[in-house]
Specification:
mainly beta, 7 strands
Length: 127
Amino acid sequence: MVAGNTKRRWYILEFGTIFATDDALTESIDRNSTQVGRAHGIYVNSALGGSDLHLLMSLVFTNKEYNGSTLQIQGADRFLHKYREVSVVSGTGKFRFARGYATLETVYLDIPGSNAIIRWNVTFLHY
């Protein structure tokens, strides 16, 4: 947690709360799956009712084939819904000029513990 209500414990369901993330990107949701990169970014709770996040994410690839390449993700993350969609707005390296979308599926969500497992399916075009 980066910022939130200063009068009590910060909570992702409150408007204005900001979370920074540096999570593993893996080939599958299995705990022992091969890591292919990191997801660096921020979530901002941008809905007065607390139900939506604004997502800004860099998917930074570290595996041999795409090492150093990135995909830039942005959009409204209605994280309380099992399925949602965000935009692929750009990319670097092998994914230069990427444009597309990503569908997100919540597989596991622990709001009090600030933990989640999200399955990403990313579709994009690039040069």
